[in-house]
């Protein structure tokens, strides 16, 4: 599960003052269970709390990708099946 790897990576980065001096990474993990409506709600909640990067969601991600693009925020989704969000020509 990606959340376990993310936890380890964030802890290691935060423990090394040479990697990101004067910065600290934080993350929030929510399981959307592949439900687009839940994913969209989490996206909005985290955006309102000041999230600057989004990792996920799974499967459907067109709505979240559009919302991230509108705010000029990066989104990384390794399991998104929607080809239209990967088309750099659009």
TrEMBL record:
Cellular component, GO annotation: membrane
Annotated Receptor ligand binding region domain residues: 4-90
Keywords: Membrane, Transmembrane, Transmembrane helix
Signal sequence segment: none
Record-linked InterPro entries: ANF_lig-bd_rcpt, Peripla_BP_I
Principal place of residence: membrane
SUPFAM superfamilies: Periplasmic binding protein-like I (SSF53822)
One Pfam family, short name: ANF_receptor
Location(s) in or outside the cell: Membrane
Coiled coil: none
Official protein name in the record: Receptor ligand binding region domain-containing protein
Natural source organism: Teladorsagia circumcincta (Brown stomach worm)
Source organism phylogeny: Eukaryota, Metazoa, Ecdysozoa, Nematoda, Chromadorea
